[in-house]
Amino acid sequence: MTGRHPVGVVLTGGASTRMGVDKATLFVGDKPMAVRVADAMWEAGCHPVECQGGDVAAITEYGLEAVPDRTPGTGPLAAIRDALERHEGSDVVVAACDLVDLDGATITALAAAGSERDVDVAVVVADGRRHLVSWWRSGLGPRLGELVDAGVTSYREALAALRVTDVDAAPDVVRNINTPDDLGNPG
C-alpha cells in the first residue's frame, strides 16, 4: 500500500440481465448485496468505501457512498479506471457487488500481496479462475485509461497487459450471484 489503507470500491453498475433486477440492492440474507461487499471492505480496513455506478440514489438509501459511472454501460474496466483516477495517490480494491460471501481476510490478503510485490494488480483466484475482486496500485489510472481507449473491454484482457499476481482464495468466498437460482445455491 502507498502509506495508508486502500480505498474500497464496490462495482454496482452492472446490468443484472440474468438476475432480472438490480443486484446491488437485492437482499441476500438481511443485507443488500452491495452492503455485504462493502462490509467486507470495511472489515479489511479499506477507507473510504464507496460504490461505483448503477442506481446511485437507491444505493445511498442503504447508507453507502455512491458515485455514478462516467460512461455507464461500458463495463468494469471503465469503472475501475474512474475509481483509480478519482483516488489518484491511493491503492484501490475493487469487487463486484455480487460476491456476497467475500470477507475481510481475503481482501486483507489481496492488498498485502499487491503492496508487497512489484505488480500493478493483485487478483483473487479460486478454482483456477480469476474473479472480479482485485487490488490496483496507485497511479494505474492513466495506463488503464489507455487500454480502455484502445478498445479493451475484457477484465481478463486488461489483466494480460499488466503485471499481475494471483492470490488464492476458497471458492465459497468468491461465490457470485448471477441468477435467481444462485440465491438458493450456497456454493
- Shape, please? globular
Low-confidence stretches: none
* Total count of helical runs of at least 4 residues: 7
Structural class: alpha/beta
Give the N-to-C terminal Cα separation.
Answer: 32 Å
Proportion of residues in helical segments: 25-40%
Mean pLDDT: 91
Largest sheet, strands/sense/barrel: 7 strands, mixed
Number of strands: 9
Order of SSEs: EEEHEHEHEHEEHHEH
Give the key terms.
globular, 7 helices, two-stranded antiparallel sheet, 21% strand, seven-stranded mixed beta sheet, alpha/beta, 187 residues
Walk me through the topology:
Elements: E1 7-11, E2 27-28, E3 31-32, H1 33-43, E4 49-52, H2 56-60, E5 65-67, H3 76-86, E6 92-96, H4 104-116, E7 121-126, E8 129-136, H5 141-149, H6 155-160, E9 164-168, H7 180-183
Parallel strand pairs: 1-4, 1-6, 4-5, 7-9
Antiparallel strand pairs: 2-3, 6-8, 7-8
Helix pairs in contact: 3-5
Describe the protein:
It is a single chain. By secondary structure, the chain is α/β, with parallel strands linked by helices. It contains 7 helices and 9 strands, in the order βββαβαβαβαββααβα. A 7-stranded mixed β-sheet has the order 5-4-1-6-8-7-9. A two-stranded antiparallel sheet has the order 2-3. Helix 3 (76-86) packs antiparallel against helix 5. It is globular. The protein starts with 6 loop residues before the first strand and ends with a helix. 41% of the residues are buried. The model has no long low-confidence stretch (mean pLDDT 91).
